[in-house]
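On clarity, I found the account of how folds are encoded harder to follow than it need be. What matters is that the chain and its backbone geometry are given together, residue for residue. For the editor and my fellow referees, an illustration may be useful. For illustration, here is how one protein appears when written out as sequence plus structure tokens:

___
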Amino acid sequence: MYPSLHLYINGEFIDGQGRKTEDVFNPAHNTVLGKLPHARTADLDQALGAAQDAFETWSRTSPMERSSILRRVGALIRERADAIARALTMDQGKPLAESKAEVLSCADHAEWHAEECRRIYGRVIPARRPNIHQTVVRQPVGVCAAFTPWNFPLSQAIRKAAAAIGSGCTLILKGPEDAPSSVLALAQIFHDAGLPPGCLNVVWGVPSEVSDHLIRSPIVRKISFTGSVPVGKKLASLASLHMKRTTMELGGHSPVLVFDDADIDRAVSQLVAYKSRNAGQVCVAPSRFYVQEGAYARFLERFVEAYSAQTIGDGLAPETTMGPLAHARRVDTMAHLVRDAMDRGAETKCGGERLERPGNFFLPTVLAGAPDDSLVMTEEPFGPVVPITSFKTREEAIRRANSLPYGLASYVFTESLSNARFASDNLEAGMVNVNHFGIALPETPFGGVKDSGIGHEGGQETFDGYLVTKFISEMSSPY
């Protein structure tokens, strides 16, 4: 039931054919699903050449044609959602309902970009002399290279592909070798939607080798990366050496501020759902909980009760609410974070250990009173471990929330307009959610500040990284 795996270069799907391959595992059982072919250097060069050749014509196509293809992509995603979601659960691990929701959200992204790409406008600047005509136009930057992660493999791929294709750029996409099926399904959908050969190419391989080759190539003019801060900094440094623009959506460690006046039951219900999604392997997952003293005991009790009630198992099982971690090393990391916090005085309220069964499972864990210098409070957990601590004043909460170099997402729960505005104005984060989860929609900008990244995906900013601004000043004969 798991699809065969290929490269996709210049409109052709290419299988192993003697190339190096790597095993793709099901993280719920650690069984092999398939073998993924790695691109040779010649394959990467073929993809670069194909993307460059395709850019010459695709960059001049009508926005209406680009829009039409993206609309067809959205429709095909909806038609094939069940099959894509099932394979996504098999190689990534998340529950099937979450996979289906991710796939359908990608249809939204394709359809929204289909409309927005028709609205890439320039402007006329009034001139100082009557025979001068001054215009500003926005043109596609060129061939782009994108590198996407394993936690939301399809969602992250469509954000980059829709923006690049919609703007008139061509794209070489290196998806996650751990969870490749949905990215190849997307390549098939663009292929079937009528995207010309070379406009989208999908390659696989050793990440550092592929990224180095593509970024150094003079053909590539823009890099987009979603992943960890250390890797993002390396790629941004390499790109800067070659004067290439970047969009970097990097890691976070999202603070949660729960004030005394918050609706505690609603806050617990929503935060348990946010934190449980994809077993906490979400860059915008709530991950540092600061609860005001007057509500701390009540919040902690109710959160532990709800969070520990997860049904853990294979994502294809209908009763599963939390699947496995994507890699065995993530299980070891969770255990290390828990031990460090306990050594520093934190108390384990639930979980705290791996689930003794085949697969990469770790129990939903709540740590009470983890000090601010513990690893779980300073390093992104990226898993089902929740540290909860208390604060006195809102000024203290903001100071502690802003103490890390991260600045991606943040969450505030309060019934006070004053507290909501104070927190929204002072949190150092690219996105602030007050009393709900309201980010990552196609029409809203997604991005961070500080070490959490540069640039945005989604919203009217979505095409900014894929366009160059050209000013034209033209003198005509005097009237």
About this structure: The longest helix spans residues 96-116. The mean pLDDT is 97. The first strand starts at residue 7 and ends at 9.
